[in-house]
Amino acid sequence: METVADNQNVKTVKKLEKMFGHIDYRHPPELCPVRDVMSVASDQWSTLIILWLGYFPVLRFNKLKKFVYGISNKVLSQRLKVLEADGYIERNAYPEVPIRVEYSLTEFGQSYVEKLLELTEWMQANSPKVLANREKYGLL
Amino acid sequence: METVADNQNVKTVKKLEKMFGHIDYRHPPELCPVRDVMSVASDQWSTLIILWLGYFPVLRFNKLKKFVYGISNKVLSQRLKVLEADGYIERNAYPEVPIRVEYSLTEFGQSYVEKLLELTEWMQANSPKVLANREKYGLL
DNA sequence: TCATATAGTTACTTTTTGTAACTTACTCTT
DNA sequence: AAGAGTAAGTTACAAAAAGTAACTATATGA
């Protein structure tokens, strides 16, 4: 049953939406591009892949696998496919023997990696606080 | 077997590490605070919870559940616990009947939500490109 | 006495991930 | 000429995470 508070929140949301224009994430993913796109791009493995490709202009499958420590062939290959489909990375295969496949960021991927680096820097700076908090919480 | 290219990359990484000082994410999560902390904070559900708490200073369990469209009681309750443990949010329970529990961002959570909003804005601005790319890729 | 409300929890099912062995095709070694 | 090595994956199976829906406690109001 809707309460007065509910309606107030709904109004506030509408207002905020007008102000900011970017709070679509209250919708289910299939109706909300932001949720949809974000679920691919900020997946744990995807971010690591993209960050490494931000450092090295081109990396091959097995090299990437070494840098993205702990990823399996299966997941790496899956993620590379969706990241390619979404336009972040580029795949170039050279029919040598054995085959050589090079992955690199697209221009679009480059622009994303910059955002990602900011977040990573925040994480780097703040992870000690989180770890300390976690420890304190564990004692309660 | 290590190749020359391998060693070059390792050297380059070391160099980059000195320059940037924040590429710890090549380690496994249990040795890399950044990967560890990020896996909690940029989880899909966590980000939505934090974003909503960025809009509303305090939200109760069921209200949060309505905003974070599609989340289940189980996962919401799990995420709230770890977000509290990690110091992003605060839980305040009032022993009324029925019980009232209020969630809100800590100061630390506030600082994170700002970073998160930047990322969300980028997503909002760029999701059309991603969707277009995805469509084009689907036709290949 | 029975329905209502909040903030969860629990048992069970389904989906997603992880593991490790296998594949293909050619070249290099013995 | 047989066998090992190599890059970039794929596949079948096991384990973990997530989703589903019913259930709990406690007091209030009908």
Per the principal axes of the C-alpha atoms, what is the gross shape of chain A?
globular
Helix content of chain A: 55-70%
The CATH topology name of the largest domain in chain A reads Arc Repressor Mutant, subunit A
Helix/strand class of chain A: mainly alpha
- Give the oligomeric state: homodimer
Output mean pLDDT of chain A: 83
Number of helices of chain A: 6
Q: What is the rounded Rg of chain A?
A: 20 Å
> How would you sum up the major sheet of chain A?
3 strands, antiparallel
What count of structural domains of chain A?
Answer: 2
CATH superfamily of the largest domain in chain A: Winged helix-like DNA-binding domain superfamily/Winged helix DNA-binding domain
CATH architecture of the largest domain in chain A: Orthogonal Bundle
Task: Detail the poorly predicted runs of chain A.
Answer: 1-7, 18-23
Pfam families (chains A, B): HxlR
Domain HTH hxlR-type (chains A, B): 32-131
GO molecular function, one term (chains A, B): DNA binding
Keywords (chains A, B): DNA-binding, Transcription, Transcription regulation
